[in-house]
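Worked example

This section walks through a single chain of length 210. The input is the sequence exactly as stored; nothing has been trimmed or padded.
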Amino acid sequence: MDPGDLIAGYAAVVASVALGWQILKERRARRPQVEVRISYSLLGYPDREAAGAAHIEARNRGDMPVRVTSAGFELQDDSEKVAHITHQPPGATLPGVIGPRDSGFTYLLEDALGPLDPFRPLVGFVGLSTGERVRSRPTTLLRRLVHPAVSRVASRLAAERRSSPDTSRRLEPMAGRHAGRRGRGRCDRRRPRTPLLCRRSGSSLATSRR
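Given that input, the structure is written out below as tokens.
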């Protein structure tokens, strides 16, 4: 085979690969590359106290602008229903256009969350003009504070429960102490007015006999 033919074939293959890569790169550049995150934020006002809000941020990582037509949160009852934010709150930029390598945000005040529980995992989303819906990761916005002493006691009880699952067998039977030597571990029926003490499954049970 002529070396000139080999060189020409190699050049044709390289040109085809380069053209395909360029087409793929352009398609990826035109495809929306949006990332959504949610968080809890405090909004400051000059004439009133700060207000808590569920914050949605959409970041455009592509080289083309994207239009966000809607935003909101998914309900937490597995009904596939959503809570839409229909307008731009004061200071927000979504719904709207996000430029290349830029971001936009919107929010929902804590008083307006309605059925949404910020103490449970929550999923936010934005809807694009292309019909796509970009969701965030499930995020718990708020956590309930537990006193350190309560947390230590709960941890200790959990550790004891793991080390000895059947704790009832470790309880000292109290029936023998109160029923006397002869009635240790059995019911004392000699006195009708005295408490009837019986031992059941390793624990003591006190009842009154009439």
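What to look for: The longest helix spans residues 3-30.
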